[in-house]
Design goal:
It is a single chain. By secondary structure, this protein is α+β, with helices and mostly antiparallel strands. The protein contains 19 helices and 25 strands. Its cofactor is FAD.
């Protein structure tokens, strides 16, 4: 056995805060509840929580090591989940019994489906989330998960042993070394360190070592990984300032209301926790030439923007937008941070100018003329590891039984982190049991697209998911993630609960039965026109039409169809989700398969995917 010691120290954040009095939790890193586990997960962010919970669901005794228990589930940047492509990932995480979708259904303050005017393959479920409520609900879930122990502690090093001869790799991980020198052993280790690897926070010309505001970076692990021979890169990201709600003039801004009814993220949620009329609105404003002027005149005071380190192309700072797209107005969404929060998050205004210039810039924007800045925006620069050094199971090539998930692999976003976390946790558990890895292919899900892109192409900028990255997006819809992944998760891995499996089985059989019934009902087009005058059915030629064909019309839904033909169809509208999925199946099933098989469609799909990656 050998250990890479004295490689620096992952300095833990203060452990003096009040601790939760739960049996599973011990705040003393020098005295863990046990010294041997099946799986150790390092980091309590969105990747870490999903990885730890997934490993425990698979039956592995799991230890989650985190700087502070009170930051588990913290939303470090934007107060929202989902969106175009990202909502697909959340549905797939949920299909594998992951946590984030269910927690969002219990914590949101504004639910909306984006891209509704387009086809269901590119709809994006999204929600504004109450930060405090999400963190509380996630901590409650994690701290009450069977087989999962949570421990506060700082990890300094990895314990390494001789490799297993039947697998590739120079060595094998067998545990971790804590900051005080004590050790905890495990069969598999999952690293989900986020932006903490040699993280530095930047505001103006000031730079401070930190993984995020208020938390110290991980130095020792970064040195350990480098010594092991991992290729390390550097990325940067940023976050906007926070603004006092009462200082904003919302009356002159464009108000955006939530959907009614609200669509939940999770397949097992009948509805979200809050009624649409009780949800909070968002507001839209824009930058102007004065903002551009302040940015351009003060670039010399901004070290973050001058760094050659690559930042997020699809969520750039306001400085980057002004430089790349001069003389344009840029959207700024004013998003609530919670039901009882006094803060507003200005989405689209990520900035790293000195604090006084940030405040000056904010007051130039419509509706924010009297705004008070409570916290300045800042940039974060951090290490990541080239993801081509991991397999599709997220196990590293160099070190056996060591898995990476989240921003350590070069991604950005809560949803991308959660997706990697659930796969890493499942495979860390399977590795302990010496079972084959669980791999999602590009044809099966957006999770497969994400991991395949990372492990084969790598990335030199924070990777973000889009629907156009998926060649098979017509069939990889948010509504059918359960039929694609839940059965695999239940039968192959055991990470899916009996309740979820039964729900997915019922939905599958109900859909098959419903489609069969819709195909069996057939009338002439003239009769359908009389039954449903709202539908734009042509009666020039009175041809026979099945109910399934009628359901394809934009004006027709299952409720309208069941009103016209109540006897056989009434039972299919008692479940909202079933009625909606029958509508989607009717509009996508037949035509989509023909389009997918077309050689021209394949060429266009490839072009569209490349165009998104390189042009957007």
């Amino acid at each position: 056995m050998f250990s890479l010691r004295n490689c620096g120290l992952w300095v833990a954040a203060s452990l003096t805060k009040k601790r939760l009095t739960l049996a599973r939790f011990s705040g003393d890193s020098a005295a863990p509840l046990a010294t041997k586990f099946d799986v150790i997960v390092i980091g309590g962010g969105h990747a870490g929580t999903e990885a730890a919970a997934a490993a425990a669901r698979c039956g592995s005794r799991t230890l989650l090591l985190t700087h502070r228990v009170d930051t588990i589930g913290q939303m470090s940047c934007n107060p929202s989940f989902g969106g175009i492509g990202k909502g697909h990932l959340m549905r797939e995480v949920d299909a594998l019994d992951g946590l984030c979708s269910r927690i969002c259904d219990q914590s949101g303050v504004h639910y909306k489906v984006l891209n509704r005017r387009k086809g269901p393959a590119v709809w994006g479920l999204r929600a504004q989330i109450d930060r405090k409520l999400y963190k509380q609900n996630m901590q409650k879930e994690i701290l009450n998960t069977p087989l999962l122990t949570v421990q506060e502690g700082a990890v300094e090093d990895l314990i390494l042993t001789e490799p297993e001869p039947e697998y590739t790799g120079k060595c094998r991980v067998s545990g971790v070394v804590l900051a005080d020198g004590s050790t905890v052993h495990a069969e598999s280790v999952v690293l989900t360190t986020g932006t903490f690897l040699r993280g530095v926070i930047v505001i103006g010309l000031e730079m401070h070592p930190a993984g995020r505001l208020g938390d110290q970076p991980s130095i020792g692990l970064a040195h350990t990984l480098e010594k092991l021979g991992f290729v390390v890169g550097r990325l940067k990201t940023g976050t906007p300032p926070r603004i006092a709600k009462e200082s904003i003039n919302f009356s002159i801004l464009n108000k955006q209301t939530p959907d009614n009814p609200s669509i939940p993220f999770s397949f097992i949620s009948e509805t979200v926790w809050i009624k649409p009329e009780d949800q909070l609105p968002c507001y839209l404003t824009h930058t102007n030439p004065k903002v551009d002027e302040i940015v351009l005149e003060n670039l010399h005071l901004n070290s973050h923007i001058k760094e050659t380190t690559r930042g997020p192309r699809y969520c750039p700072s306001i400085e980057s937008k002004v430089l790349r797209f001069p003389n344009r107005l840029h959207q700024v969404w004013l998003e609530p941070e919670g039901m009882d929060s006094d803060l507003i998050y200005p989405q689209g205004l990520s900035v790293t100018l000195p604090a006084e210039l940030q405040e000056k810039m904010i007051t130039c924007i419509k509706g924010l003329e009297k705004a008070k800045m409570i916290q300045p925006g800042y940039g974060v620069q951090y290490d990541y590891l080239d993801p081509r050094q991991i397999t599709p199971s997220l196990e590293t090539h160099l070190v056996q039984r060591l898995f990476f998930a989240g921003q350590i692999n070069g991604t950005t976003g809560y949803e991308e982190a959660a997706a990697q976390g659930v796969i890493a946790g499942i495979n860390a558990s399977l590795r302990v049991k010496r079972k084959p890895p669980f791999v999602v292919s590009r044809t099966e899900g957006y999770i497969g697209v994400l991991i395949d892109d990372l492990t084969t192409l790598g990335t030199n900028e924070p990777y973000r998911m889009f629907t156009s990255r998926a060649e098979f997006r017509l069939s990889l819809r948010p509504d059918n993630a359960d039929s694609r992944l839940t059965f695999r998760g239940y039968k192959e891995v055991g990470c899916v609960s009996q309740q979820r499996y039964e729900r997915a089985s019922w939905m599958k059989s109900s859909l098959e039965e419903g489609i069969s019934v819709l195909k069996s009902i057939e009338f002439s087009s003239s009769k359908w026109k009389k039954l449903i005058p709202e539908a734009s059915i042509s009666i020039g030629k009175s041809l026979p039409l099945r109910a399934l064909d009628v359901l394809k019309y934009e004006e027709v839904d299952m409720k309208l169809l069941a009103t016209a033909v109540p006897a056989p169809l009434k039972k299919y509208i008692t479940c909202r989700e079933l009625a909606e999925r029958l509508k989607i199946e009717a509009t996508t099933n037949k035509g989509s398969s023909a389009r997918r098989s077309s050689p021209t469609a394949k060429r266009l799909r490839l072009f569209d995917s490349q165009r998104c990656v390189f042009v957007l």
